[in-house]
Design goal:
It is a single chain. The chain is an alpha/beta fold. About 35% of the residues lie in helices and about 20% in strands. The strands form 4 sheets. The protein has a 7-stranded parallel beta sheet, with helices on both faces. The protein is globular. It binds guanosine-5'-diphosphate and calcium ion (CA). The site of calcium ion has 7 residues, from helix 2.
């Protein structure tokens, strides 16, 4: 009997894939890794936010995820390295003027390494794996694509600006009229991302911004189709609680882009790709409407204000997908 396992051994733990933006996804990850060993985890990350500063290729969401998995992320900000200093940024001001995008001294090493490897011709996925390995990360961290996709934001007043200009420089105060993903139609999703969706026991859509974090991943050709095939084991977590983003502009974007700024509005965005929708207790009045969308609503506490809260939410999500 070839299929019989040696006495006492356990079946392999089910594999889990997380589709991720930055800080919201990282908060959830801190809880998820309490239940799923990193070796069984694939995290596919948005790269629409990538930007060049000082000639360096910066991948904010990839770094937030990698630093979180490595346990070295700055716990207060949720991005950057804990205990980093900012001397180089001050010195760069001599040449470039006052900085509006903060890059720590130690963090710069990551961007220098990434830029140099890309310049040598290595694909971003290979460089990302190298960076993760050097930080001791055992999970598989994937950029959504090796091709270049860049998120631009069309402002009601202010024209079309690169995402970081809107998000960091203007502190997402301006009114958003449209999101444009340059390069999207030519970009191919990373094959490993499509494989992870097809093979993992569960796929989780992190509580990330639906338009500028998960949007770029979901709109890559073939990703939504792959998710639809496994829809019953795809769970999405609301980034909105009581109609507001926990952090950032998601609720305002919902409104100005023509969607209801609520958990129900988010559920509508994901109804084709996710069979399960996780929303906050304070939003439980939407559960029936979500059910009518053909999704299984899971009502629980989704504010992750501690690692314990994140771990508890992760457990609820894993239970919901049957793991
Ligand atoms: P970014 O790329 O760093 O902006 O990060 P994401 O797109 O991954 O995360 C931003 C989203 O995370 C926002 O829409 C927040 O509402 C959401 N978020 C942050 N903290 C929490 C939390 O504790 N619970 C939930 N449900 N969502 C959160
Ligand atoms: Ca981001």
């Amino acid at each position: 009997m070839l299929t019989r396992r040696p006495h006492g051994s356990h079946p392999p733990r089910p594999a889990v894939a997380l589709l991720a933006g930055g800080v919201g996804a990282a908060r959830f990850l801190r809880g998820l890794v309490r239940h799923v060993p990193q070796s069984r985890l694939t995290v596919a990350v948005n790269t629409g936010d990538d930007e060049e500063f000082y000639g360096l290729h910066v991948s904010p969401d990839l770094d937030t995820i990698t630093y979180t998995l490595a346990g070295v992320v700055d716990p207060r900000q949720g991005w950057g390295l804990a205990g980093d200093s900012f001397a180089a940024l001050g010195a760069l001001a001599r040449f470039y003027g006052a900085p509006w995008f903060r890059l720590g001294d130690r963090d710069l090493a990551t961007h220098i390494f990434r830029t140099a490897r890309l310049k040598q011709g290595a694909p971003l996925s290979a460089v990302t794996a190298e960076i993760a390995r050097r930080f001791g990360v055992r999970a598989r961290v994937l950029p959504m694509s090796d091709d270049r996709v860049r998120t631009f934001v069309r402002l009601k007043r202010g024209g079309l600006v690169p995402f970081q200009d809107y998000f960091v420089r203007r502190r997402f105060r301006a009114r958003v009229q449209a999101i444009e993903l340059r390069g999207l139609f030519r970009a191919r999703p990373l094959p490993a991302l499509l494989e992870a969706i097809a093979r993992c026991a569960a796929v989780i859509l992190a509580p990330s911004n639906p338009f500028v974090s998960l949007g770029p991943i979901l709109r890559l050709s073939g990703v939504a189709a792959a998710l639809r095939k496994v829809r019953p084991r795809v769970a999405a977590i609301s980034p909105l609680i009581r109609g507001r983003a926990v952090k950032g502009p998601a609720h305002r974007m919902m409104r100005t882009l023509g969607h209801q700024p609520s958990a129900l509005g988010v559920a509508r965005l994901y109804r084709d790709v996710a069979g399960i929708f996780v929303l906050d207790r304070s939003d439980r009045r939407y559960a029936e409407a979500i059910e009518r969308l053909g999704m299984r609503p899971i009502v629980t506490d989704i504010l992750m204000n501690s690692e314990q809260a994140a771990a508890r939410l992760a457990k609820v999500v894993l239970d919901a997908v049957g793991l």
